[in-house]
Queue: 3 jobs
Job 1
Amino acid sequence: MGTLALAAKITHVPSMYLSEFPGPNFGCRDAAINGHKEIDRRCRALGVDTIVVFDVHWQVNSEYHINCGPKFGGTYTSNELPHFIKNMPYAYPGNPALGHLIADVANEMGVKSRAHSDTTLELEYGTLVPMRYMNADQHYKVISISGWCDWHDLTESGRFGLAVRRAIEERYEGTVAVFASGSLSHHFADNGRAPEFMHKVYDPFLEQVDRRVVELWEAGDWKTFVGMLPMYADKCWGEGDMHDTAMLLGLLGWDRYAAPVEVVTPYFGSSGTGQINAIFPVTPLPAETTT
């Protein structure tokens, strides 16, 4: 029925918004912004009508949650970094129907999930930052899914990602892109040292592990990466424990996925963290995929 047209791991660093304004950081995130614009261009060419974002800035403590309100709008200031993102306006249409289909399929698979369409839930900046550069004209409907899952298992998050794909392909009549919005390593600069790490990764160990991970992705060696994912998320402070990445891989076939990624924005450091924009080619699911 429906089509999963594009999948990607994307950055949402707040310095992207900061880089729009005159000052010492003006233009510093042009590469990341241009990467978002390139992903948007491809989504439009593929006829995408809805973008689903696994957002690691939405923390939940139980179950999987889907924000599928009929519309979103307001003015956003980050409570985490209010000096980076402040008074940012946004307005996007939602997609309640697809959100409920995702929850239905996940629950049928035994992954407890809830879709929230009659809600005052707002969007977090893991969704708002990329939508600013891809969806300013409200071309796409938007669904945001909690990707900061403190008490969840990465394998279960992979199964949730598989449920997203099944909902799209088996029950939805439309074309969808799915983004894992989060970093690679995610150790921020220590308090008082932020300026010196504006364009750096916190520690050489973290950067070297990140770069090796990108090599595995470019080689399509998902079996190795999935095997190391729990330890990588733990030892390198993966953002949201990297549940967004687990969901993305579940969507694509987990450790049986075999496609090499296409890096759109090369790996870069930002406030101590490791960042990238990379497209994960959508390929047919391996037979009997269960993660």
Note: The domain at 3-280 is CATH 3.40.830.10 (Protocatechuate 4,5-dioxygenase; Chain B).
Job 2
Amino acid sequence: MNKPLVGAFLAALLLGAGAAPVVAAEPAQQAQETASKAVPEAKAVTFAGTVALSNCSGSVVRSPDSAPTDPALVLSNGHCLESGFPGPGEVVVDQPSSRTFTLLNASGDGVGTLKASKIAYGTMTDTDLSLYETTSTYQQIEDSYGIQALELETAHPTAGTAITVASGYWKRTYSCDIDGFVHQLKEGRWTWKDSVRYTPECQTIGGTSGSPVIDDATGKVVAVNNTGNESGQECTDNNPCEVDENGEVTVREGINYAQQTYNMVPCIGAGSKIDLNREGCGLPKP
């Protein structure tokens, strides 16, 4: 896993900033004349809507059906929970939490603090994610800070998609492509299914755990960053291995991975309630 980190001293030493390519704007007159015919261009990915946890990264996310008055949800990894790593087969739902998150603006500056009311969902079984319900609504966050939540993509991503991993902990971005998908990704005691594999350019590090993986073309969240093979070991902690449908094991030293998020969108109901029995919900149940 992209190990959770503790303390700010190391962060201060290693803090860096990265940026996705900026798309040049058309001259105003030309843009006005061609607006009806031009294909919309991708916007540069920023830090707006990302958050920093005490030991990981995260983001404020919403489903396409979320209402402005719904409590805002914060997405991160299951292995970033303050209660520790959930064991294989363990699913955490509706557990009280008072965890805080530093909300970042587009430049990566902390502009406010969000507070959790509960861990709405968390697991490291089949996937590695956590969802916190906060005490603020999406509208309150936008009114107070001018920041909108990142929208979750509802469809399975595709190989070759240009992506950006935006780490609120480090205030740093990593840009690469989706290289492909892994039938089973095994790390220590845990197994994850249909994981996203990055091309080598995304050299994520400890503290980037929980970062949103953003489709550069749409600006939507397609996955949550969670791990990478650090030293070439096979299926050990911090050294995940790939297992295909035939049981063949492949080790890719230096390659990093994420867990898809489209299958959790149907689980988000009215009022940001996580309902694992909703039609289409693909998250493991307790």
Note: DSSP finds three helices and 16 strands in the chain.
Job 3
Amino acid sequence: MMERSLSEKRPTAALRRAEPVHLLTELKAILYLIPFLIPFTVFYLWPVIRGAWMSLHVWGIQGMQKYVALANYAKILQNSDFYAYLWNSFYFVLLCAPTVIILGLLLALIINQRIWLRTVIRSVFFLPYVLSVSVVSFIWLRLLDAKNGPVNAALHMLGINADINWLTDHRFVWWAITLATDWWSVGFVMVLFLAGLQEIPADHYEAAKIDGANAWQRFWSITLPGLSSVMKIQIFYQIINCLKLFGQVQIMTGGGPGDSTNTMIRYIYVTGFKKDMFGMAAAQSMVFCFIMLLIAVIQFKITDRKDG
């Protein structure tokens, strides 16, 4: 009996000795998180909380003026401009996200081959991505100038004599913004796809060749499944990135012609900084943030279902 009682006490004592070690490990983990949590709280969490509080008030440049509860949200949902600018944002997603992903994948497939100067070519395509949005926008503002722009000059050399108003004609303006954005961001998409391609084992392609699979069959059966995780990241990132469109529109078109290129982010900017309605702008931001979160949740649900 005595031996039994001693054996029962030993695990308890061991657990007691392990508790300080366990707590010390948790404390170390918290200390490692502090360098991340401090800037996250200051620059992300607190502005969101502050913006949510502002959205419940009439708030101008001089500060809070009046508490209005959910009145700002009701005005947003009753405003036809909100739906028009929201559609403009989604329209740009439909134009830009597929084109930049397809172009990035094609470039990655080409550069992944053993071609001459492929490192130089990869650097050339990636270089625009290091530029700021303002620099990119001013470059394309000059390139697409209706009178003196190189794009129209090249079209004249091909026999098209009309001066196309790329940035003032509603038929072409969205394509002009998409072209500038694709040129700017395709290098980043290409690099991610290239990294994914290099993770696919080469012996899979060799086995497919032995079985008689042609290039298209190898791409469909090996390459695309091997890039599935990268593709999910690309789709998610590009949708969110396109929804945040602002700089290109602000510099290249100013939201014109008319309001045809006004997006949600520019709508929020104009409401807050041009109309001095920061409470309303904060409410618009909250609504738009909720929409983007909803899109993210739907996308994750769809991808999880496919994985299952």
Note: Strands lie at 57-60, 63-67.
